Amino acid sequence: MIDKKAVGERIRSIRLSLGYTQKEFVRIVVNDDKSAGHVHNWEAGYNLPNPKSLSEIAFYGQISVDELLHGKRPDPLIEWIEERIGGIKLTGLWDDEAEAHYNKGYADAMLEVLNQVKGEE
């Protein structure tokens, strides 16, 4: 089930990150400056954009339609590794500039998992 309120929050976040008013945003997404109420309704979680508008919003937000509708989903590989390293979380390894932070605990845990996987083959 899709959480329309959460989708609305993601749409609002995308719009604000681009610096658009609701009227400007609807002009870009729907190509219609008479439908500013649409954006309000989306952001309030009253209804969802049509598929074409979802695609446009996702494009401008540089995310997939799936992420727009459901939020970020955990990476199955990361979850699998985290299960095997006993509680050490691998998320948050990169900062906003996507530069890796060296963390000996993570590196040691990753090495241990890789050695286990290698032994299972």
List the helices and strands and how they pair.
Elements: H1 4-18, H2 22-29, H3 36-44, H4 51-61, H5 65-70, H6 76-84, H7 104-120
Short description:
With 121 residues, the chain is mostly helical.
Can you characterise this structure?
This protein is mainly α and 121 residues long. It is 62% helix and 0% strand. It is built from 7 helices and no strands. The protein has helices spanning 4-18, 22-29, 36-44, 51-61, 65-70, 76-84, 104-120. Helix 1 crosses helix 3 (36-44) and helix 2 (22-29) crosses helix 3 (36-44).
SSE arrangement, N to C: HHHHHHH
Q: Report the average pLDDT across residues.
A: 78
Distance between the termini: 38 Å
Number of helices: 7
Radius of gyration: 20 Å
**Strand count:** 0
* Overall shape: elongated
The biggest beta sheet, please?
none
Low-confidence stretches: 93-102
Protein structure class = mainly alpha
Question: Helix share of residues?
Answer: 55-70%
Fraction of residues in β-strands: under 5%
Task: Offer a few descriptive terms.
single chain, 121 residues, mainly alpha, 7 helices, 62% helix, elongated
